[in-house]
């Protein structure tokens, strides 16, 4: 019954199972539940966050995968990937573990300082290719289409030159309204940019997400104490990320 229940609903808790069995006349402990499921190869894990996909999104992703299934590795090496991300002060989204003695949980060495509402954050735009990271900038104001095109003009082209991209390199960005606006598409056309057609709701397909994760881990380790330090550390750690 235990294995059958969690197979139907993986979000069932040990407490739910204990109560269900108790109502059925069987008394078990949480440890018994865990051991039983572990013997069946099941263990408790954090649920992964994934994009909410409607049928139209699924079909678009499948179409994208089929179209690029046989692309040679060199083609992907000629892509510049881009995205925006938010980094919060005091590592609100990060988790750390410490070794401590009993009743020492509030000792300063064993805590991570936080403030109400996370202490602020910064928005970053960055890009990279197989040859390494391109430019990273802090977006100071609410981004609109005009600002986005200015960012591309000031940072994407210099990044392509610095990365020594081959002629005909391809640019990737998602389907944010600022990215797909008519004026932005016209800007791409005038610059003779080749833009990778991208399926909606697909951040998990963008390898820059791995780069953002690497940056956030590095920044959290340095524990910036204010927004100015957060921005400086982001730039320093981005520059240190090796091509590999």
From TrEMBL:
It comes from Pogonophryne albipinna. It comes from the Eukaryota. InterPro entries: RNaseH_sf, Tc1-like_DDE_dom, Transposase_5, Transposase_Tc1-like. GO terms for biological process: DNA integration; DNA transposition. This is Transposase. Residues 79-230 form the Tc1-like transposase DDE domain. Residues 1-70 form the Transposase Tc1-like domain. One of its GO terms (molecular function) is DNA binding.
């Amino acid at each position: 019954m235990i294995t059958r229940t969690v197979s139907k609903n993986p979000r069932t808790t040990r407490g739910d199972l204990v109560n269900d069995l108790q109502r059925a006349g069987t008394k078990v402990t949480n440890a018994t539940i865990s051991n039983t499921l572990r013997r069946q190869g099941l263990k408790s894990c954090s649920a992964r966050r994934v994009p909410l996909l409607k049928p139209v999104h699924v079909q678009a992703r499948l179409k994208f995968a089929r179209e690029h299934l046989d692309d040679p590795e060199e083609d992907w090496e000629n892509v510049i990937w881009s995205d925006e991300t938010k980094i919060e002060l005091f590592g609100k989204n990060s988790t750390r573990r410490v070794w401590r003695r009993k009743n020492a949980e509030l000792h300063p060495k064993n805590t991570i300082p936080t403030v109400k509402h996370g202490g602020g954050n910064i928005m970053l735009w960055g890009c990279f290719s197989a040859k390494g990271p391109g430019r990273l900038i802090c977006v100071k104001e609410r981004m609109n289409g005009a600002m986005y095109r200015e960012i591309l003009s000031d940072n994407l082209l210099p990044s392509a030159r610095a990365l020594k991209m081959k002629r005909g390199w391809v640019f990737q960005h998602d389907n944010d309204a600022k990215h797909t606006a008519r004026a932005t598409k016209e800007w791409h056309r005038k610059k003779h940019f080749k833009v990778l057609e991208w399926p909606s709701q697909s951040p998990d397909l963008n390898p820059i997400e791995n780069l953002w994760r690497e940056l956030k881990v590095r920044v959290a380790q340095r524990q910036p104490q204010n927004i100015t330090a957060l921005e400086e550390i982001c730039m320093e750690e981005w520059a240190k990320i090796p091509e590999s």
